[in-house]
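WARN retry 2 of 3 for item q-0093 after timeout on previous attempt; input resubmitted unchanged.
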Amino acid sequence: MGTATALLERLAAHQLARLYILDFGLFQVGANDRIIGIPGYLLETTEGARILIDTGFPAEYAAAPADTAKRDGLERFGHILRLTAENLPAGQLARIGLSAADIDLAILTHGHIDHVGCLDQFTHCPILVSKAERAFDRPIYFEDRRPLDWPRADYHLIDADTDICAGLRLLLTPGHSPGHIAAMLTLPATGAVLLTADAIARPEEVSEGFDGAWNPPMAQASAARILAMAEPAGAFIIYGHGPEQWPLLRKIPEFYG
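OK item q-0093 returned
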């Protein structure tokens, strides 16, 4: 659909129609045996544009999970329970007859390993990310590991809340990472939906104080801000990695409209 600027100009006239939740696998957090889903999101507008939010783990994790986890030091944090080719973006999109080439805009909430892994599959379209995340020479990835380069692409960088189309507003929510992005949606039947991503990975983080965040006070402020936005809208809150919520969410090919 052209350059990032031209695409965003066109999208401004669109209306959000559908939300698909993509299943990018299961991960067990080692310290407490918490099992979390790894989500991505596919948004469709009434005019037929398709927007992908996040891309899951790198494809090599599906091919050689043990070797790759050892390389990245991920064993210190936990281990992958389920990640096959079906849990990569191509496998998930194929469930509704799409491929990576059908995506018009890719949005990266932040540069951690389970979000940025397959970003290189979407260089044909503009990639939207915050200025603070893209300022790193390489994606944050995991702890001190930086194996991925930023793929060559047409990047659109934001440093404030940004409307993409009617029904899709991106929210700058630093704290979990320096330039994290969440999203507020408005769908025709479902109504308001808050995609917290890792701004609130699970509801308990709010009371726990976001101890594992890059900047806990900033994470607390960001969480409070988006929850204050969600409450008057009666928003359905979809957490980034909520263990109890994950099995209950509709997954592609089902959708929220």
